[in-house]
Amino acid sequence: MVNTVVPPSPATVTLVRVTCTSTSTRRKPGPKPTPDPSSGASPAGHAAGHRSGRGVAGGPGPPGREGLVDGRAAQCQGGAKSSPWHPAALSVPSPTLPGMSNHSSALLAENATWQALQATALGEVRRRAALVAAEADVEPATVDGAERLAWNDGGGQSAVWYFTADGRALLLTFDHEGSLNLYAEDDYALQVSLYRGVPDDLVALVRDRPENYESLNLTDPDSGATIHYAGGIFWFDGGSWHIADGLAAYCEQEKIELNGEAGFSYCLAPYHFGEELPEPGGR
Asked: What angle do CA 206, 51, 207 make, to 5 degrees?
């Protein structure tokens, strides 16, 4: 089935929904755990799902989970532990000025969801993020003056947005069954390296922060420093969205299909970029 998506620009893009056959079996989510707000700890179910590879917690996600991609996700070989992405120099992202990303959007240039996101004004992105967060029953939060809005499907996939007062944004996506799930590998150094190229003040929003349902922490075994996990890392400089340089370089090096392995199109499906946002409860 082909859905034609018309973003608010002269261009017309096409979102292709295909059903893929995978060697892995998608697990049906179970009941969603209730977090204990007094403890400050993340729900055990979400953490257990990532560590063990089991989908947990319940509530339907967007339809066509396996197929909402631009093509079939690449099969990724090799463990992160043996990759060349562990030098100490990669433990701190290099500063990058807005608009200076080397990879910008090349890996998602043909992706209909990415094109629609690029064509949507940030104010509208924020409006949709707030509506979807409310529908998903995720409370908004403020982190160092930035507004945090999030969605999760109750089964290990999530999208987290941070909107700053100066008109920039950070977007994190996560697919717990994707090869970019570094929480399962407990690989702090590699996770930090994927944020390379994102301005330091945006990365600071996810450094040494309490865990929550959508964002668990990876911890540096030497210093105890933490950072929120993310398979997809994207940022808005006030004019355009970019893929984090570290993430783009790692995907190119390891031959990883970014859209599928980061859950990008799936995690952004509830926002209906490029089309009318359905009324609450109409998804």
From this structure: 10
User: How many angstroms separate the most distant Cα atoms in the chain?
Assistant: 52
With contact defined as beta carbons under 8 Å apart, do 199 and 101 qualify? no
| 3 state DSSP class of 16 | strand
- State residue 263's pLDDT score: 95
Specify the higher pLDDT residue, 209 or 70: 209
Q: Which residues, at least 6 apart from 52, have a Cβ–Cβ distance to it below 8 Å? A: none
Q: Give the type of residue at 163.
A: F
Pairing relation of β-strands 232-236 and 241-243? antiparallel
- Please write down the long-range contacts of 29-33, taking CB distance under 8 Å and 24 or more positions apart: 29/55, 29/56, 29/57, 29/58, 29/59, 29/153, 29/154, 29/155, 29/156, 30/55, 30/56, 30/57, 30/58, 31/57, 31/58, 32/57, 32/58, 32/59, 32/154, 33/57
The first and second tokens of residue 161, run together, are 């947005």
Of 55, 228, 81, 65, give the one whose Cα is nearest residue 141: 228
Query: What is the rounded average pLDDT of the residues 156-180?
Result: 96
| Three-state DSSP class for residue 62 | coil
Interval 176-204: pLDDT, tens: 999 999 887 889 999 999 999 999 999 99
Closest CA to 204 of 160, 162, 173, 157: 162
Residues 6+ apart with CB under 8 A from 244: 101, 194, 195, 196, 197, 198, 233, 234, 235
pLDDT in tens, 88-127: 323 333 333 333 344 557 899 999 999 999 999 999 999 9
Give the global pTM: 0.68
